[in-house]
Amino acid sequence: MAIKNSFLQFFLLTSILTSYVESIDFNYPAVFNFGDSNSDTGDLVASGLEGISDPYGQTYFKKPSGRYSDGRLIIDFLMDDMDLPFLNAYLESIGAPIFRRGCNFATAGSTILPATATSVSPFSFGVQVAQFLRFKDRVQDISKTTGRKYDKYIPAQDSFEKALYMFDIGQNDLAGAFYSKSFDQILASIPYILQEFEAGMMNIAKFGTDQSKLDVLGCVSAHNQAAQLFNLQLHALSKKVQGQYPDTNVTYVDIYSIKINLLSNYSRYGFEQPIMACCGYGGAPLNYDSRVPCGQTKVINGNNVTAKGCSDSTEYINWDGIHYTEAANQYVASQILTGKYSDPPFSDKMPFLLKLKF
Ligand SMILES: *[C@@H]1O[C@H](CO)[C@@H](O)[C@H](O)[C@H]1NC(C)=O
Ligand SMILES: *[C@@H]1O[C@H](CO)[C@@H](O)[C@H](O)[C@H]1NC(C)=O
Ligand SMILES: *[C@@H]1O[C@H](CO)[C@@H](O)[C@H](O)[C@H]1NC(C)=O
Fold first, then answer.
1. Which residue lies with its CA nearest to atom 11 of ligand 3?
2. To 10 degrees, the CA torsion angle through 3, 332, 122, 207?
3. Domain 1-253 carries which CATH code?
4. What is the pLDDT of residues 226-259, one digit of tens each?
5. C-alpha to C-alpha distance for 290 and 282, rounded to whole angstroms
6. CATH 3.40.50 region(s) of the chain?
7. At what angle do helices 74-81 and 2-23 cross, to 10 degrees?
8. Among the options 6, 37, 65, 238, which is catalytic?
């Protein structure tokens, strides 16, 4: 019975996605993404700072793919819907990395605010933007000096102006702060976090010229109340950037609402477990123990215990206690594509500014 429900859900989602692909004609030559683990397609792992092991990737890639899920991420589904290949991580140097259709600077653990000595990732938002600007300079330099020799591997010169820029970051700024700061302190820090975000976005928007087509998709997340306040201010920021760069289309997508709806009404969307982790240790209600991360074996009370993956991750929203399952990511992507959660309303010319809540 459970399995049947899951398949039904998958089928319905597939038909929703298909109908939108038919009605919305995305036509971006390239996509550049900035963010954290929500959209990291292998950057942190490529950096050598962290490894991920089985059962990550068990559902789709059949091996760990550098993604913090059992399968594809929201960004993978969106790329697919735009008929573009999965984004290569900026730091992935092996396997003739192909950046023709864009590049992914997102790195798990990244914050908007500059990294500190205890940060998981040194690649905070400002660093990712700097990486992008260097990437762009290198592409222009290589095109100029080597002609078309590297066409297969690097974006076309004019694709920077026509590309879709996505931002999916902020969760770690808020979630991390909950360990060390009071609620009021966290709320008070939001304007500073957004100032840093604004500086980075403006930095990217700056190179856009009259005929530029800069599109912005940004994502942020955190504990509910702080996230809502953050998102309110992010919404205002999207209007501000839009006002300052009229040649740019900035759209804000309310992923918070998509996820709250998914968690509240999970059974309607074919899920059976709204909060329990598929891959974890400890059993119900959360199956999460921070001492035993997904895929690892640790000694607890003198016994070896392993956090293993569940047998059917399509029943679960939560993959490893922190990140979403592929099934949940697919649901969120399908809801983004309905355009119902966007301001201004979604159209084929309209990219989006994403905000995430976890
Ligand atoms: C922005 O959106 C408007 C309205 O959909 C469209 O006409 C215009 O071409 C878009 N501009 C860019 C730069 O994408
Ligand atoms: C759950 O679904 C009901 C019925 O569609 C809807 O009214 C409600 O807003 C949903 N919950 C959330 C949190 O979105
Ligand atoms: C846990 O497993 C390791 C590796 O198999 C083994 O060396 C160790 O003795 C085990 N420890 C306990 C407490 O069972």
1. 304
2. 150
3. 3.40.50
4. 777 888 888 888 888 888 878 777 777 888 889 8
5. 10
6. 1-253
7. 40
8. 37
